[in-house]
Amino acid sequence: MSRITMRWGSILPVSGLSAMAVLGRAGVTIPYATLRSNFRKSCANVFVTHASHTARRTMLNPSNTQAHWRPTREVEFIVGTPPGGGQDRPARTLMRILEATRLVDVPIKLTNLPGNGGGHAWDALRARAGDPHVLSISAPPLMSNRILGISDFDHAALTPVANLFTEYLAFVVAADSSIRDATALIAMLAADPGAIRISLATAIGSTSHIAMGQLLTHVGADPRKLDLRVFESAPYAVDDVAAGNAQLGVISAVSARKALEAGTVRALVVSSPARLSGVFADAPTWTELSVPCVIGQWRGVLAASGIGASQLAWWTQALAAAVEHPQWQDELAAHNWTDHFITGGTLQSFLDDERTFTRDMLKALGLVSPP
What we know:
It is a single chain. The protein is an alpha/beta fold. It folds into two domains: 157 residues, Periplasmic binding protein-like II (D-Maltodextrin-Binding Protein, domain 2); 162 residues, D-Maltodextrin-Binding Protein, domain 2. The chain has eleven helices and 14 strands. The strands form three sheets. Strands 5, 6, 7, 8, 9, 10, 11, 12, 13 and 14 form a ten-stranded mixed beta sheet that branches. The longest helix has 21 residues. The chain is globular, with a radius of gyration of 20 Å.
């Protein structure tokens, strides 16, 4: 019989579960379903070529739109990670641009509701059906939470407005780690995957979790032996590695930047199709090492369900204008975000495809039973 160890010390019995994970900033140990070793599908690149700048410029400026609506009271961004987390950063950047350019001429506030990989924020958004003055940031757990039964809805129950960019992953170790490079990491995973404690964010079944499963499949190891510590925000996972509580962190690259600059962690490898710039310039890609793992986390903007066509059109046009702003382009470069701005039917098709991809990968991980 396995046990759940809560951070405040209580012990709860759980039967039939053999693997363990950790949730929360300080760490809460929970069991999760055992993983299958053979993937039915290789780790795919979720990056899709972004819409052209020319196409964006053809979108109407919100001030000139024929849609007879614009925000008339305070706008609220509800985001599902703590300040500085992966869903918080793009929301704050968009807020600054929308306010500075007067694209939105009413106040904008940000509310952080971390937990469940963003699920608490999406629950709050869902409860505001028909309200065009509330937005949130989308991310892959919007799909995985529904598939895993953590929530009972996904993007289809909300109003996707736009996808913004893709964040690729960095695999980091403490500065003084004995794991010299990605080749040494692969060898260790092949020998005993359970010997390496791994910190990641923001949920079981996340992009980082899928990437680790792909690595173990590549080396012929058993994913059921993964020893995972799952945090509600990627910076907490990086701190966990720097503190020596885990031997490896698998997180969005930007989340490791400050620790890399401070010299408390080292980047072994990244999951992007080409090398990243800045502090990641010396980190090879998995592709360079002949490991098939090119995968990233997408971020977008959601509105509540039930808003009108004119309201959706206004927000679509406002975001199209915002991502053309030099400050947004600077943020893309500074955070190693890969531009992937899409809207309308292209966005709906992308999200539907992501739902299918995520379901297939979670089945392959053993987290979802085949039909």
